[in-house]
Amino acid sequence: MSSKANLALLEFDLSHSSRRNRFPNLGSENGQTPIDIPKDTRKFKSTDPEIHYESFSLNDHNIENHEGEYLKIIVSGENYITVKGKRYDLKQFHFHRDSEHAVRGKKSAMETHFVHVAADGKIAVMGVMLTATKRSNEKIAVLFENSPLIPGEHLSIVKNFNAKDLLPKTSAEYYSYSGSLTTPNLDNTPNPDGLTWIVFKSPIHVSEKQVIDYSEIYEELNARILQPLGERTVWERVEKD
Fold first, then answer.
1. Which CATH superfamily is domain 3-10+31-238 in?
2. What would the mean pLDDT of 114-140 be, rounded to a whole number?
C-alpha cells in the first residue's frame, strides 16, 4: 500500500457514528456491520486474540467528545492484539448507545468498540456489550465523569488507564465475522475482504445512572441500524481441549 494510502487511513476517523442523514443505510451492500448475531454459528477453537494491553496515560488530551456524538479515548503505548500471528495496534476505543450489535435479536444498553490497525492498514475491532444494572462501574466512571462537555473538545486527567479493565473476564468466548466499519469505509483499499470483528459473548456492567449521565452529554443514539448477514459465516470461539 502506498504511503499516500497509509496517510489517508490514519486521517480517516475509524469511529464514525451512523446519523442517517450523513451515512445512509447500505443494506444492499455485502459485508456490512453491525449484524444480529444468529443462533446458528460455526464453532472453532483458537488461541486468538492474544491481548497485550498495558496502562497508558490520560494526560495527553486523549479524552475526546467527538462532535457531540460519542466519547472516544485515543490510546498510546504498547497496546495491541495478535490474530493469526498478525499484530494490530489499538488506536482508540469509543462508545455506542445503544449497542450496535444484537445477539439473537437482543441489544444491550451500550457497546464499546476497540479499534486496532495493523501495519498494512488492516483493521480488527473488538466489541464489548455494556449491560445496565444497579452497580456502578468504577473503571468506566473514570472516563464518563471526565468526558468533555463541548463537542470537539479534548481533555486530560492525571491518571493512567488500562483498556483491559473494560474487557469481560471471560474474554476467551466470542463471536467473529468479517464486516465493515459501522459507517461506510471511505477508504476500502486496506480492507477489500472486510475487516475482522470480534464480539465478546459476555458483557460488562454499567449502572443505569451512568447510562443516563452519559446520555445527557451525548443525547443522540449513535447505533447504526442492523445490516443483513447475507451469506457470511459467524464463528463462535469455544475453549480449547
1. Alpha carbonic anhydrase (3.10.200.10)
2. 96
